[in-house]
Amino acid sequence: MQQNPTQDNQITALASHQRNKLFRQIHRNHPVCCLYTRRKPKGKKTKQKFYFFTEDTENLIVAATVKKNKGTIYKFSTSSKDVKRKSPFYVGLCSDAQTKKVFIGAKSYPEKPGLLFNSIRITTGDEEVGDPIILAPPSDQDFRFPETPETPLPNDAFFLVAKKINDITNVTNPEYYTVQVLLGEETVLSLHQIAEDEFEAEISYPLSLFQAFCIACTLTNI
């Protein structure tokens, strides 16, 4: 049964509203808590998926499907289904390797200093796993996100570094771990593992939900 134009317009407007919310900075005094989950592929025809749900788990915030192509490409949408780029639910791409597709939309950004993450800590219980990962200064690699994104801007150098974190978290350890991403002295993203594939996420200013989801996917991809 075909939808009428009015229904199509309503769906597009709602999808656009949901998408725009992903790119707004978190309020300075109101961190956002949500449930972050990952789903392993079942068989050759299914893809690995990642999700942000509201804290009560009732509503999907954003989802990602994974494709391997000269690295790992994450395709984000506000739908639980795999969507095409022309879909109103499509959000954007990020990758842990440089590809032509990664740079879609990047030209729309003016030159801005952006945000510089200076370290990432991983802990199990009260113990730190390894040393804090100190991110290289901008002169070596660019680990920045734009301050006020309107469309997704990939950040390849940051995602390439994220692979090192998997080397640490994939060690055989019966305890769950917590990942903290720091901006200066402030934790802007905390991922506290509560089950094998579930994390309590807390996102703080000046990140957006989109930025936090990019980081979460690349840090916890297995």
Identify the notable features of this structure and list them briefly.
222 residues, Tubby Protein, Chain A, eleven-stranded antiparallel β-sheet, 3 helices, 32% strand, Tubby-like_C
Give the fraction of residues assigned to helices: 10-25%
How big is the Rg?
Answer: 17 Å
Stretches with pLDDT under 50, minimum 5 residues:
98-125, 128-174
Domains (count): 1
What's the tally of helices?
A: 3
Q: Strand content of the residues, in percent? A: 25-35%
Biggest sheet descriptor: 11 strands, antiparallel
Structural class by helix and strand composition: alpha+beta
- CATH architecture assignment name: Alpha-Beta Barrel
CATH class: Alpha Beta
Shape: globular
Compressed to H and E, one letter per element, the order equals HEEEEEEEEEEHEEEH
